[in-house]
From TrEMBL:
<feature type="transmembrane region" description="Helical">
    <location>
        <begin position="68"/>
        <end position="96"/>
    </location>
</feature>
<keyword id="KW-1003">Cell membrane</keyword>
<keyword id="KW-0813">Transport</keyword>
<keyword id="KW-0812">Transmembrane</keyword>
<protein>
    <recommendedName>
        <fullName>TRAP transporter small permease protein</fullName>
    </recommendedName>
</protein>
<feature type="domain" description="Tripartite ATP-independent periplasmic transporters DctQ component">
    <location>
        <begin position="5"/>
        <end position="129"/>
    </location>
</feature>
<dbReference type="GO" id="GO:0005886">
    <property type="term" value="C:plasma membrane"/>
</dbReference>
<dbReference type="InterPro" id="IPR007387">
    <property type="entry name" value="TRAP_DctQ"/>
</dbReference>
<keyword id="KW-0997">Cell inner membrane</keyword>
<comment type="similarity">
    <text>Belongs to the TRAP transporter small permease family.</text>
</comment>
<feature type="transmembrane region" description="Helical">
    <location>
        <begin position="102"/>
        <end position="126"/>
    </location>
</feature>
<comment type="subunit">
    <text>The complex comprises the extracytoplasmic solute receptor protein and the two transmembrane proteins.</text>
</comment>
<comment type="function">
    <text>Part of the tripartite ATP-independent periplasmic (TRAP) transport system.</text>
</comment>
<dbReference type="InterPro" id="IPR055348">
    <property type="entry name" value="DctQ"/>
</dbReference>
<feature type="transmembrane region" description="Helical">
    <location>
        <begin position="28"/>
        <end position="45"/>
    </location>
</feature>
<keyword id="KW-1133">Transmembrane helix</keyword>
<dbReference type="GO" id="GO:0022857">
    <property type="term" value="F:transmembrane transporter activity"/>
</dbReference>
Length: 138
C-alpha cells in the first residue's frame, strides 16, 4: 500500500511540476492495485469482513446453519483450489513461458499473475483454519 501511495504521488509530482512526466508510474500503480486487491480479499476473508448473507442464515435452526456453513466452506475450498490456485498457476506459467513483459517496466507479467495462486492458497489455508475452529465449537 505504501508503494502504491509513493508511486501515485511521484506520478502527480512529475506530471504537474516537471515537463517530463514519469512513464512507468501508471503501469506500476496498476500492478500494485492488482496485488492489493487479491491479497486484500484473502485478508478480508480471514477477518470475516467479506460480503455475506448472515441475515438469512441466522433465520435457520442451528442444525441447518451448521450445514450451510459446511457447504460454504466446501464451495470456497473448491473455488479457491480450482480457479485461483490451479488456474492462476497455469496463467502465471503461461505468461512466463510466453515471456510476456510489461510495456513500460519490462517486468515479466508472470510476476503480476503470481498473486492469483498465492491468494488462492491463502483462501484454502484460511478455510482450513475456519473449519478447524468451527468443528471445535460444534
Amino acid at each position: 500500500m505504501i508503494g502504491l501511495v509513493l508511486d501515485v504521488t511521484w506520478q502527480v509530482v512529475t506530471r504537474f511540476f516537471t515537463s517530463n512526466p514519469s512513464s512507468f508510474t501508471e503501469e506500476l500503480a496498476r500492478f500494485f492495485l492488482i496485488w492489493i486487491a487479491f491479497l486484500g480479499a484473502a485478508h478480508a476473508y480471514r477477518k470475516g469482513a467479506h460480503l455475506g448473507l448472515d441475515y438469512f442464515v441466522n433465520k435457520f435452526s442451528d442444525n441447518v446453519k451448521n450445514r450451510i456453513v459446511s457447504l460454504v466452506l466446501i464451495f470456497v475450498t473448491v473455488f479457491s483450489t480450482c480457479i485461483l490456485f490451479v488456474g492462476g498457476s497455469c496463467l502465471a506459467y503461461l505468461a512466463w513461458d510466453l515471456e510476456q513483459t510489461s510495456a513500460s517496466l519490462g517486468l515479466s507479467i508472470s510476476l503480476v499473475y503470481l498473486v492469483i495462486p498465492m491468494s488462492g492458497l491463502l483462501f484454502v489455508l484460511f478455510t482450513a483454519e475456519f473449519y478447524k475452529n468451527y468443528s471445535n465449537n460444534i
